[in-house]
Design goal:
Strand order of the largest sheet: 4-3-2-5-6-12-11
Mean pLDDT: 91
Radius of gyration: 18 Å
Oligomer: single chain
CATH class: Alpha Beta
Number of helices: 8
Bound molecules: S-adenosylmethionine
Order of helices and strands: EHHHEHEHEHEHEEEEEHEE
Helix content: 25-40%
Low-confidence stretches: none
CATH topology: Rossmann fold
Length: 275
């Protein structure tokens, strides 16, 4: 993520409300752009790296019932729906959910059991209103947009059945949301690594995930100890993890900088469990 860090720790309630509104405005105004970019299956990282990792950690079979947080335009919900799972797919952005519904209605080869709902994952009561119990919960690339994580972890724990799993896939806090620059021997060289200059403090940042994006959005960096700490404080335990580099051979035409750093995981998939 390219970004302009500012020093905003989201602490006060009014500040959280303001940040949440900025997040919503950002996704609403860019919904058409992202829907087109993600398409039916998500971008190359989503369908080639993030979704397979989430599936491996979820380890679910046809008939399982899931809740998804921050589902975007529904790529992962459709992927699970096509495998015979029943999905309650939720997101903060009505505009992205409208794209998700439209894309799901056009699945003509089979019936899928997916219902979409507008849910703010930073509001635990809204999550509890989604029903349950669910066999599993999932959130792919959503936590960077959330100023608070405890409501989602707490809500997930309460709607999961005992032993149910909650899989979170996120940009890696140590390498991809921290303050970093790509390390190069000479300015025109390909990068050989990262120089990380900021990691331990939580902060809000304005950034873009795609250079064609018109408006920078608000993202939140938090160190791994804080991300895990919020899950543990909500009564979840960690029992699975994968660190995910970008593929060395990119699936799209353009080679991205992360494709050149196969020893550095740009993302991490975490499996929490209700015990
Ligand atoms: C990077 S997109 C990921 C979408 C989808 N999971 C994917 O991987 O394609 C981040 C998503 O988080 C959603 N989001 C941001 N804040 C949220 C919140 N508080 N509650 C629920 N969803 C939120 C946005 O609307 C957006 O759809």
């Amino acid at each position: 993520m390219s970004s302009e860090p500012n020093q905003t720790p989201p602490d006060a309630d009014s500040e959280i409300a303001q940040l949440r509104q900025q997040v919503l405005d950002g996704w609403e105004s860019e919904a058409d752009f992202f829907d087109e970019r993600w398409g039916d299956q998500g971008d190359e990282f989503h369908h080639g790296v993030f979704a397979p990792a989430a599936e491996r950690l979820l380890g679910l079979e046809s008939g399982a019932r899931l809740i998804e947080f921050a589902c975007g335009n529904g790529a992962f919900a459709r992927r699970l729906g096509r495998q015979g799972m029943s999905v309650v797919a939720t997101d903060l952005s009505p505009a992205l959910l409208a794209h998700a519904e439209r894309r799901t209605e056009t699945i003509s080869d089979q019936a899928v059991d997916i219902s979409y709902r507008t849910v703010d994952a930073t509001d635990e009561r809204a999550i509890l209103n989604c029903g349950g119990p669910f066999d599993a919960a999932v959130c792919i690339m959503g936590v960077m947009s959330m100023p608070l994580l405890r409501p989602m972890f707490g809500g997930a724990r309460r709607v999961l059945r005992p032993r149910g799993a909650f899989v979170v896939v996120t940009l890696h806090p140590a390498y991809a949301t921290s303050g970093y620059t790509f390390a190069k021997a000479e300015p025109d060289d390909e990068p050989h690594g990262l120089t990380i200059h900021r990691y331990l403090s939580r902060y809000a940042t304005h950034g873009v995930t795609n250079t064609a994006q018109k408006q920078p959005q608000v993202y939140f960096h938090r160190p791994m100890s804080e991300l895990l700490g919020d899950a543990f404080a909500s009564g979840l335990v960690l029992d699975g993890m994968e660190e995910l580099p970008a593929p060395e051979q990119p699936m799209a035409e353009a080679k991205l900088i992360w494709n050149m750093l196969p020893e550095i995981p740009m993302a991490v998939a975490l499996r929490f469990r209700r015990v």
